[in-house]
């Protein structure tokens, strides 16, 4: 169900979906894990202002609230690469990318990028990491509860990562907070018939094989800051991620160690050269770099974290 109301300056949209799934129909690597993303329910509320707000008189340019229940996602590096290769075939996507690049060259009078106000709430999200697309062994990450929200502040404001620091120019930041509570990690196995306590993913099930890797459930807090005025100045990193992982104590046995090592080698580290774009023979002259700035900054703090092998 989708309902849209458009006025002179504001467009409101509400949508609800009973269930949604994304399937991998590739003949070889999609046989075992056909369903890659499933959710039992999705509610969306979106509000968009149609006129520009150069002087930042509004709180946001666009508002998006997303509520999802029972989210399950199966991650393989090859599937993501397949999606990227698919979209590379469209010239329309190239035109969109070109327009984005040209938009970065706008004048300072055009102000910051689009301010998208987010509220995302997901109950019981689960990420499944197979050892490979051909293996029945799975690492299951139960994320407990996921909450995402953001705000827009100027650099140097109290609460930002660079608060108290003097910069040559202030820029507008999109500060996003990601909260994961009651996280758990365990090993599982793909089966074709349901078993007590197994997780259903459409055409197959994943059953718990051993106990949890964690002694107690843990939590992860992330703060992601994006510079919305990169076309004007770079006094802060274009993106800065700061996180805190707390109260994690894990014990990994030999089988679990083999599973983790295997998925790092055959899933996350899988060779996908057959899906990479072909390199052109055009030799481009190196441009002299006149300005250098920090692009990404990642800082993860581990508080009371221990792992026993």
Structural class: mainly beta
> Which oligomeric form is depicted?
single chain
Radius of gyration: 22 Å
Tell me the number of structural domains. Answer: 1
* Alpha plus pi helix count: 3
Strand content: 35-45%
Which residues sit in consecutive blocks of at least 5 with pLDDT less than 50?
A: 280-287
Distance between the termini: 50 Å
| Main sheet properties | 17 strands, mixed
The best one-word shape is globular
| Sequence of secondary-structure elements | EEEEEEEHHEEEEEEEEEHE
Helix content: 10-25%
Based on DSSP secondary structure assignment, what is the total number of beta strands? 17
> Could you report the average pLDDT, rounded to the nearest whole number?
84
Protein name: VPS13-like middle region domain-containing protein
Pfam family, one: VPS13_M
Domain VPS13-like middle region: 60-289
GO biological process, one term: protein targeting to vacuole
Task: Write a structural description.
With 309 residues, the protein is mainly beta. It has one domain (2-87, 112-156, 170-272, 294-307). Helices cover 12% and strands 44% of the residues. It contains three helices and 17 strands. The chain has helices at residues 77-87, 91-103, 254-266; strands at residues 2-6, 10-17, 20-23, 35-39, 41-49, 62-69, 72-74, 116-123, 126-130, 137-142, 145-154, 172-191, 199-200, 205-212, 218-227, 239-251, 296-308. The chain has a 17-stranded mixed beta sheet that branches. Strand 9 (126-130) and strand 10 (137-142) form a beta hairpin. The model is unreliable at 280-287 (pLDDT under 50). Residues 60-289 form the VPS13-like middle region domain. This is VPS13-like middle region domain-containing protein. Pfam families: VPS13_M (PF25033).
């Amino acid at each position: 169900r989708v309902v849209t109301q458009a006025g002179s300056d504001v467009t409101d949209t509400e949508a609800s979906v009973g269930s949604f799934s994304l399937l991998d129909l590739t003949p070889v690597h999609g046989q075992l894990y056909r369903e890659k993303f499933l959710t039992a329910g999705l509610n969306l509320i979106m509000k968009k202002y149609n006129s520009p707000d150069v002087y930042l008189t509004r709180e946001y340019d666009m508002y998006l609230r997303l509520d999802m229940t029972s989210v399950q996602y199966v991650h393989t590096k090859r599937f993501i690469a397949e999606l990227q290769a698919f979209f590379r075939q469209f010239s329309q996507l190239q035109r969109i990318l070109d327009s984005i690049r040209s938009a970065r060259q706008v004048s300072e009078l055009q102000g910051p990028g689009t301010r998208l106000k987010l509220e995302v709430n997901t109950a019981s999200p689960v990420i499944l990491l197979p050892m490979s697309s051909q293996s029945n062994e799975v690492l299951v990450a139960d994320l407990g509860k996921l909450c995402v929200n953001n705000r827009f502040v100027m650099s140097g404001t109290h609460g930002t990562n660079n608060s108290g620091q003097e910069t040559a120019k202030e820029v507008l930041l999109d500060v996003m907070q990601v909260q994961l509570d009651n996280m758990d990690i365990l090993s599982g196995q793909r089966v074709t018939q349901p078993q007590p306590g197994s997780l259903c993913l459409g055409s197959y099930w994943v059953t718990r094989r051993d106990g949890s890797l964690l002694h107690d459930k843990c939590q992860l807090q992330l703060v992601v800051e994006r510079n919305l005025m990169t076309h004007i100045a770079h006094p802060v990193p274009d993106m800065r991620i700061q996180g805190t992982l707390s109260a994690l104590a894990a014990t990994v046995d030999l089988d679990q160690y083999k599973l983790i090592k295997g998925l790092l080698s055959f899933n996350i580290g899988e060779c996908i050269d057959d899906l990479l774009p072909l390199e052109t023979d055009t030799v481009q002259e190196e441009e002299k770099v006149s300005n250098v700035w920090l692009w990404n900054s990642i800082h993860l703090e581990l508080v009371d974290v221990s792992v026993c092998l």
